[in-house]
Specification:
heterodimer, A: alpha+beta, five-stranded mixed β-sheet, 17 strands, about 45% helix, elongated, B: about 110 residues, alpha+beta, Arc Repressor Mutant, subunit A, 4 helices, globular
Amino acid sequence: MNKTININLAGIVFHIDEEAFDKLQSYLDAVKKSLKGTEGNEEIIADIEARIAELFSERIKEKEVVTKDDVDYIIAKLGQPDDYQVDDSIFDEETTGSKKSNKTKRLYRDTDDKIIGGVCSGIGHYLGIDPVWVRLIFIVLFFGGFPIIAYLILWIIVPEAATTAQKLEMKGEAANLSNIERKVKEGFENVKKKVDDFDLDETGKKVKETGSSFFGMITSIVGSFFSFLGKLITGIFAFAGKLIGVILILVSFAVIISIFITFITFSFIDVNFGSDIAPIFLAESFVDFPVWLSSILLILAIGIPFFMLMYLGLKILIKNIKPMSGVVKLSLLGAWLLSIFALIFISINQVATESIRVSENPKIEQLQAVDTLYVKMRTSKHYDRVDPLFNIDHMSMSYDQDGEQILFSRHIRFDVHNSNGANPTVEVSRTAKGRNYKKALERAQKIAYDYELTSNTLYLNNYFTAPTDSKIKAQEVEIDLYLPENTVIQLDSNTANYISHQVDNNMDFYRKDMADHLWKMSSNNQLECLDCEQ
Amino acid sequence: MNIENTKAQMRKGVLEFCILSVMDGQDKYTSEILDALKEAKLLVVEGTIYPLLTRLKNSGLLDYRWEESTSGPPRKYYSLTEKGREFTKELDQTWNELKNAVQKVTK
């Protein structure tokens, strides 16, 4: 069984089978090429087509369809494409001398033998080597990144060998470097050519043909202009379309790759970021759901749309790309929706676990009445080295003295108040959030915080810890210092980062500026600076 | 030196003259011209003739008109123009001189 095609030769319709059609078309293409640059070549080709029609009509009396045999007969009778070339010496003064050998090989994409776009097999044909080697080189160099871009550019600018003639041309003679260069340049100039196709002479002729009619002239000019515009727009769109395709592929590819790299780096590999801990543990102590599950959901939610974009880009670039089956499309859509809903649920749940903020009853300790109280922060040799690169709510993760994972924070604030005549006291309150009061309170009570009191100095730890299973839920420690009037307080320079912004002072200093000064408690709950420059 | 090439050159040299001669006195359409030339073994394949006819026509030696055909596409009937007739006459003269010359030499 053979497919037949209807063709029109010199106004006569023939049924021709596919094989014969390919042969005839490549023959005519070759003849056209051979006659390129010959004077009146269009007329010659019309004559040749008329002759072919005549010969077909003679041969096809009974049967309906033109077959390959008929085409072979025609070619034998009319001669090879080279036979059409007239000896120039006969028409010496008339020949333009522009005839040249058209046997150069051209670079095409071989879509019959393709893995992605047929670029490698095309180059293989062009250089006369097996495409496998070209592919191998591309893959080896792939890790340099450049071949991906090179491949995409070649994909865009190198035309696909669509017709038989092009396929023959693709496998023609050996080529040299300058030809490759020319080919690449030609691809870039495609759009430009379309613009140049706007032939001014043609317009001029048309104007003349329509004669003296002014409107005819206008119509002709407008007509030419629009056909030019049409060509230009088609050209631009074709180019823009491919460009969009490439951008889609590049962007979505980059996103997908980076998602995977992020995922792998942050979850499977326990990299120590400086003295810090793998972010995965931090995430685990924050999210109430298993992190691996949340990560997979996140990958699906971001990855699927970008995968579809990449597929779209590929589809723009290659027309005959294998279509995605309905089942695959629906599964992807389903997986995407599922991941989105699951993420929404996880997010809501996450918010719900922080719905209430509870401070336990402060621990109150009496201080000895002193004239001057020194406040210093005390650091831990063990935790001092910890400088969290990643933190959530100022909280990060570390290892305790026994090498066990532990939550760690420097979220400490201290405030100074007037004790209204009473003895000085220090009050420590621990705060955390939770799904309900009880859980929040339990979490707050799990905070481990320590300070030390000597006769006239208060040493406050500049950190607190919490067990990992209590998770990061806005834990913090606040220290309130109650001092009788006229008590002097000396804030050590290392307290700078821990002074509450609520501390009222006569200098209008903000937080850390108050450190390293002497302050006196006034009657109106304000600290007055004793050693500040006015 | 390729003998086939030389033969082809010889044939090509007189082809133009022969085409014009075929049409002398009578209008011919492409197939008839081809048949006459093929019968005389001046032509192996038809391809060569088309560019020649077009060139002769464009040089004002030939003219053509269309005639409908019952069995195929419309036919292009070529005829000699006045210029073509004179051209042919002159070529005829040259050919006779050449023929004599060749005969004398090869005798």
